[in-house]
């Protein structure tokens, strides 16, 4: 069955791995959202092997900029994409790991802007296209690439007062999306520990 997949942070790490897997399937459209479509890693997406009838569409989304998700969705709609089956909120930042006593509000805010507000913006921008998938008899999904750093009960043994709270908040929003939209499969996927670029 053909699907329309939307992945943020699709030009490297886990996002690129997901894109490459979906691209192998036939008759899929993969929307690859990247911070800088002119970057070398984004330009290399044109070289990804694809299944028969599958295409990759690159759009710009800097998850820290609310309007980017709206603009990206407007662009794909103009390109003829009328529904989305899966949205994967993969883009995120993890740039500093201070103790709470040393944390700077601007560092916490930067993580919240990308890792939380960016997820909410993406959901708001893609929601109607996900709902359009239901009208086609499909079961759409909004997936957050989560992290054990966002766990509240079992704290990882590392200082993490900027990234951790942002992932905990993002996890909450996904659970709430699932509760508010009974037609949407919204869930967190935690890949475990791994080094990213």
UniProtKB/TrEMBL annotation:
<comment type="similarity">
    <text>Belongs to the short-chain dehydrogenases/reductases (SDR) family.</text>
</comment>
<protein>
    <submittedName>
        <fullName>Uncharacterized protein</fullName>
    </submittedName>
</protein>
<dbReference type="InterPro" id="IPR036291">
    <property type="entry name" value="NAD(P)-bd_dom_sf"/>
</dbReference>
<keyword id="KW-0560">Oxidoreductase</keyword>
<dbReference type="Pfam" id="PF00106">
    <property type="entry name" value="adh_short"/>
</dbReference>
<dbReference type="InterPro" id="IPR002347">
    <property type="entry name" value="SDR_fam"/>
</dbReference>
<dbReference type="GO" id="GO:0050664">
    <property type="term" value="F:oxidoreductase activity, acting on NAD(P)H, oxygen as acceptor"/>
</dbReference>
<dbReference type="GO" id="GO:0016616">
    <property type="term" value="F:oxidoreductase activity, acting on the CH-OH group of donors, NAD or NADP as acceptor"/>
</dbReference>
